[in-house]
User: What shape does this take?
Amino acid sequence: MADKASRALVLYGDGSARFVDMSNTHIHSLASVASCGFLSLPHAPSETENERIVREFSLLLDASEAYSIASGLKPKGNENEILTLAERFMGLKAALVTDNSLLTSFGKLIGLDVLQLSEISQKSDSVPSDATASKLLRLLGFEGGKCLDVTLYDSVFVHIGVDDVNLGVIDSLVGSIMRMAQPGSEIVSRLHLSLVLSYGSVTDKDVSVFPVNAPQQDMNPAFAGLVPRQSYTMRGEKTRDDVRHYCPMLVAQWQHAVTRKDLVDTLSFEALKKLSGNLVIPADRFIHEVAFKLWKAPKYGA
Assistant: This one.
């Protein structure tokens, strides 16, 4: 555990998971020093692509109730029931960086300051320069390798849609951030970096390609009734009946000398399934894990 509260940068590659390959060296380098795992999602309703983007982001922030009210799935007039992140997590100051207009509206609804990705992103030959990473870190009070006493935000969420920029841009950004958070710098002991990659819209073909649970036919029939429910299928004492057992989000979390390192050496579905330390947790628990590192929430899980 750190002796001071961390500051969190979350890079969210929406729909990018299926495009990761061995050329994304910085992403794999991060995974090799990070604590990795899966974030499970519920089955998707019939929805547009923009609705999916907002709904899945709302899950990452455990704000699906707010999404249900905002999208009309719950009766209008309940807007006063929507709690901001600051109200839920001990005054957490958070920003969302995105170019998606619907996500912008939702972020403001739950109390996030919203910044335009296109205004922050610095490009040179289609690859973000270190200036982009510097701007993001500056929002968290990291500047010139120093950790400032005063910061605009405790946490910054960066939403990068697969149609906005390619995975190579995310890879380059990860590399820039890790270069700036070298061991020995003030940044490295306070920065909690998360990389989350989702599969975006899924099809029936994905069921057999990216399953997180063992198929029933592979299980010894004698033990079928003895296998306990996995924790990600539960919420408290109640069963989550809508869990999608395939195409989870991939997540790597790193903070020098704070997060545990597992055996993962590449951020791939196969490597995480075999070697990750965190296995599977529900996506709506992610924000609680991050908030704990910021001293804004109690520990979730073991």
Q: What stands out?
A: Residues 215-219 have pLDDT under 50 and may be disordered. The radius of gyration is 19 Å. The first helix runs from residue 25 to 33. The CA atoms of residues 43 and 244 lie 5 Å apart.
